[in-house]
Amino acid sequence: MKFxxxxxxxxxxxxxxxxxxxxxxxxxxxxxxxxxxxxSDHVDILGKRVTVREAWLKALPANPYGGTEGVRDVIxxxxxxxxxxxxxxxxxQLGGSRRPAEREASSSAASCxxxxxxx
Length: 119
Prior knowledge:
Layout lengths: L7 E5 L5 E10 L4 E9 L8 E5 L3 E3 L8 H13 L3 H13 L3 H19 L1
Helix pairs in contact: 1-2
């Protein structure tokens, strides 16, 4: 199975650690995948990159967080690992998950605050 860059996966490392994360790179000839770990039963590898055999991984759905609350939990993880790009991606995803009326209300509130500072 060929994994694409950015694809979410889960599996085990050679040391038997359970991992979840996204594919940073994939070598289809050697069937090796480099994964950025965002969840694991081994705390020391959180936020790190590990190399895993392709056969030890399976693809996850595009949003493995299970909705808005899951995204908020992972935002905390992004903050703790100081991964700015991931944090921005997650907050954008969270903003996109709100209903249009909520986004409009949020935008209006921000505009009102901005106008008050100009007055």
